[in-house]
Amino acid sequence: MNPTLEIFSQGEEIVTGQTVDTNAAWLAQEAIHCGFTVTRHTAVGDKLTDLINLLNDIAARADCCICTGGLGPTSDDLTAEAVASAFNRPLEFDDIAFEQIKEFFDRRNRPMPEVNKKQALLPQTAKRIDNTWGTAPGFALQHQRCWFVFLPGVPSEMKGLFLEHVKPDLLTRFTLQPPHLVSLKTLGVGESAIQELIKDIKIPETIELGFRAGTDDVQTKLLFPFDYPKTDLDSLVAEFSQCLGDYVFAIDGLEEPTGDLAFEINKLMTATNHTLAIIETASHGLLAAKCVGYDWLIQASYDKNISQSNQVLSSSELLNTAKNLALNLQEKTDGSLVLVQLYTGKPEALKDKNLAIQVLTVLRVDKTFYESIHTILGPITRKQNQAALLSLDLLRRYLK
Amino acid sequence: MNPTLEIFSQGEEIVTGQTVDTNAAWLAQEAIHCGFTVTRHTAVGDKLTDLINLLNDIAARADCCICTGGLGPTSDDLTAEAVASAFNRPLEFDDIAFEQIKEFFDRRNRPMPEVNKKQALLPQTAKRIDNTWGTAPGFALQHQRCWFVFLPGVPSEMKGLFLEHVKPDLLTRFTLQPPHLVSLKTLGVGESAIQELIKDIKIPETIELGFRAGTDDVQTKLLFPFDYPKTDLDSLVAEFSQCLGDYVFAIDGLEEPTGDLAFEINKLMTATNHTLAIIETASHGLLAAKCVGYDWLIQASYDKNISQSNQVLSSSELLNTAKNLALNLQEKTDGSLVLVQLYTGKPEALKDKNLAIQVLTVLRVDKTFYESIHTILGPITRKQNQAALLSLDLLRRYLK
C-alpha cells in the first residue's frame, strides 16, 4: 500500500474562485510520481477555525500533507498561526529565516517592510525550508500520523521549493515505490487523432494510458508500475514513438531530461552551432519570447506593415514574399538559419475566434528553402501561441 | 450573515491532478455573485467511503453544497450510490429521467448502451434536474442543514445546468444579498509595500480587504456588503487609489470594465491616436507579444548585439546608448512614440535567478525623453515578464 497524501490549499482567492487552483493539480501529479496515493484536495479561506479544524482532520487521516498558501506577510496569511494553535506549537522567531528575508530585500536595494518580520515566525520544532525565490520560508513538521509540509502559494516559489527541498526529503522519509511515467510530447496533432494512430497497440493491463492536452503540447502518458521490466517498457515506448512519428518532439521519462519545444530546439541548435534570425507576424514577438536565454537567436523582428500587407495574398504570392524576405534577412545577418513567418486571412481573422488564419513559415538554410503551412483557429492568444510553436517546429524538423 | 456554500468535486482525474479543477473556481465565483459565502472546496476520488464521510460532514457544516462529477454511466461513477447510502435514501428508478436518456440517444440515431440505464437511478425524494446537454440528469435534495445539488462534471453540461436550472432555484430558495467587489490593480509594488502605503486608511469592519499577487499584477481587493452605500464605497476606493498613487493601472468593479496592463494601455493609445515602435532586450519579444491584437504597435525588434553589448556599461553610458537608439528609431519609423529597453548585469545575470539585472527604459515623445530604471531578480522567465511589464508601464504613466 502506498502512503496517502492530501493537498490543502489556503487562501480566499482559491475558495472564492478568483484563482484556479493549479498548484493542487501540479502537486498531485508530483506526489503520484513519487509513489504516494493522493486521496483528497481541500481548499479553505482565511477563517482561523476552519484552518485549525482541517489541520486536525488531516493529521488523523493522512500520512503526508502538502499545504500551499497563507505564508505571506499580511494579516490574512494565517497558516503558521493555525498550525501553532491546532498542534499546540507556539510560534518562535527564527533568526536564520529573518536574515534570509532581510537579505531578500537587501539584494533588491529595498528596505524590509515591518510586516515581513512576521514571516520569520515558525511553529516550535518545525523544520525550516529555505526559500531563495521569495520572502516566505516554508516549514515542515510531524503531527500525529501526518508529515505536514507548508509552502508558499505563489506557483513559481512553490514549485521551486518542492523540487529543490521537499521532494528529495519525501523520497528518503517514506518508503515509496514510484511508478514510472513516460510522456510522449507532440505538436500539431490532437488527442483524438493520436488515439487513432495508436489504436492497434496492445497495452498490458498494468499500464495506465492517459492524455493531456496543454497549450504548448499534447502529451500521451504511460504510467508503468514500479517493477515493470525495463526492456518491456522500452519496447512499448518505441512502439508508441513509431506510431506517432514526426509529431513527437520529446519523450520524457527516459534517460535524457526534456523540456518544451524551444528547450529541445536549443539542444539541436547548440549541437550544430547554428544561429537564427527571424521575422514573425502572427506570433507577434512570442516566437522570440519562447527562445529567451538561448544565445543562438541573434535577431527577431515584428513589423505591422509586413504582417498586414500579406493578409489578402494568394498562397503562391505569399510564398514568394516570404522567400524574398528570407533572402534579404540572410544577407543582412550572420544567421546561418533564417526563419520567416507570414499569415493570410480576412482582416479581422487574427482577432476573431471563429475565423481561421493560414500561417506560412519559410526556413532558409544555405541555398535551400523549407516551408510549412498551417490553418489555425480560436481566440487571438491561441493563434499567436500556435503560430509561434508551429514555426519553431519547422526548425526542429529540419534540425532532426 | 450570508448562507455558506461548499463545493465538492468527485473524480480520480481531479484528485490525481490530470485535470485542473476549473469547475470549482467557476462555481465559487457564481455562488459569491449570488450572495453565498463559499467556505470550502473538496475533491475526492472514487472511494465510496470517502464520498459518504464527506457528504455527512458537509450536511452538518454548510447551508448549501454544489457537487460535480460522478454521475456518468461507468462503475467508477459513484455519487448517486454514495448519496443513497450516506443519507439513507435508496435509489429509485426515475421513468422520466430514463425517457430523457433514451431520447438523447434516439436523437443521435444511436442505441442506448445498457450501462446508461444506471443514470436514471436517483435517490428517493431527490428533485431531478433535467439535462438537455448530455445524458446524466442532475438532482438536488435537502439533508440536515444542507441543500445539496449534484451536477455532471463535464464543464459545458455543468455550466448549462447551473445557469438554466440551479441558479434561479437558489435565488428563490435562499435569502441572498450579493456583495460588491472592487480590485485595485497595481504594478511595480509588492504586497507588503502596499500594506505600508494603506496602513493609515480606516477600513470599516464590514469590508473585507484582501490581496492577490499574480505574475502580471498585484491586486488589492475590497469586498463591500450588499447594502453598502455607493457614495461611501466610492470615497473609500478613492482613498485607496490616492494612497497607491501611480502604481494603480486599473480599478476593477466600478463602471468601466478593465483588463491587463496592455488592455489599459490600448484604451489610452487609441484615445490619443498614437503609434509605437520598440526595441526590447531583456523582455526578448514578450513586450511585443503582450500587445498582440493592438494595431498601434507598428514595429518591434530584438537584437542580440544590442542586448549583450550593454551588459557592462555604466548607468550614464547605458542611458546615452538608449537615447541614441531611440533617436535613430524615431527617424526610421512613423511611430509617434518610441520605446527602447536596455539592461545591464553580469554576463549570466539574465539566466541566474540569484543575480539581478537593471532594466532601463527610455520613452521618446516628440523632443522629450522619459526614463525608468528597475532592478529585477528571479528566474529568467520572471525577469523577462517583469521587464516587459515595467517598460510598458513607463508608456502608461506617460499617457495618463
Q: Care to describe what's here?
A:
The structure is a homodimer. By secondary structure, chain A is an alpha/beta fold. In chain A, about 40% of the residues lie in helices and about 25% in strands. Chain A has 13 helices and 17 strands. In chain A, the strands form four sheets. In chain A, strands 2-1-3-8-7-6 form a six-stranded mixed β-sheet, sandwiched between helices. In chain A, strand 7 (about 140-145) and strand 8 form a beta hairpin. In chain A, helix 2 (about 20-35) packs parallel to helix 6 and helix 9 runs parallel beside helix 13 (about 380-400). At the A-B interface, helix 1, helix 2, strand 2, helix 10 and strand 14 of A face helix 2, strand 2, helix 7, strand 10 and helix 10 of B.
